[in-house]
Write a structure and sequence with these properties.
By secondary structure, the chain is of the alpha+beta class. The protein is built from seven helices and eleven strands. Helices cover 30% and strands 35% of the residues. The protein is elongated and about 70 Å long.
Length: 239
């Protein structure tokens, strides 16, 4: 097997957004790992590429250099480029372009059946920064202080608030935190179009999540309880 040519076919699969073509370059039991995912099998790697292309429809890898290493692997230096024209990590498209430099080290099965492993290296903060997102580095806690993040949504309604609603939830796992945050974004999109809505603030500190919403009247605050997303979150309570 020409290993450099086989590595080139792997990248062609990514550039064609072809999950089957990517999976076909792997040997049985082959895996993919990068700073964001660990040990994906061939099919999961193909799905990972397609999901990424859904957020960046012109996603492509520009190969800067490829070379054989002393142990028979292929090293590939690349720049991943694309335009964010689809939802990414639960956020709406920004229309911004990304340019992520990185490198892959591709090893092959001894029997020549394909790729045994791809291990990728890149700075995971580059894409968020290119998209205009703030990347924070802070401790989880210091002494009595616990740190987190907050966000605000408003439609520019300057009416004095006639009602304030407050919610509090403590998740049992990091996965639940992500689930609640995803559902909260859906609810906030509904709030933005609700009659009498003024503004929303969401806060996450560790696994504790708070929301604070301002409304023109108590009746407006109560009405949001009937919204589809709000009702699904209220009724989907797990013991």
């Amino acid at each position: 097997m020409d290993r450099l040519a086989h590595a080139a076919r792997y990248f062609e699969g990514w550039n064609d957004h072809d999950a089957e073509a990517i999976a076909a370059t792997f040997a049985p039991g082959g895996t993919y790992t990068d700073p964001l995912v660990k040990g994906l099998d061939a099919q999961a790697t193909g799905a990972y590429a397609v999901n990424l292309a859904a957020a960046f429809s012109d996603l492509r890898f520009e190969l800067v250099s490829t070379a054989m290493t002393s142990d028979g692997a292929v090293s590939a230096q690349w720049i991943m480029r694309g335009t964010n024209d689809g939802p990414f990590q639960g956020l709406p498209a920004t229309g911004r372009e990304i340019a992520l430099p990185g490198a892959d080290f591709i090893s092959f099965a001894a029997d020549g059946s394909g790729i045994a492993s791809v291990v990728g290296y890149f700075d995971s903060a580059v894409v968020p920064r290119d998209l205009g997102l703030r990347v924070l580095v802070q401790p989880v806690a210091i002494g009595p202080w616990t740190f987190g993040v907050a966000s605000r949504a408003s439609v520019g309604n300057d009416a004095p608030p006639g009602a304030i609603s407050l919610t509090f939830l403590e998740a049992r796992s990091d996965e639940e935190v992500e689930e609640v945050q995803s559902r909260s974004r859906e609810i906030v999109h509904e709030l933005l179009g609700a009659d009498g809505f003024i503004s929303f603030v969401g806060m996450t500190v560790g696994r504790r999540m708070y929301t604070l919403s301002a409304w023109e009247t108590p009746e407006a605050a109560r009405a949001i309880r009937a919204s589809p997303h709000h009702r699904s979150c209220s009724t989907d309570v797990r013991p």
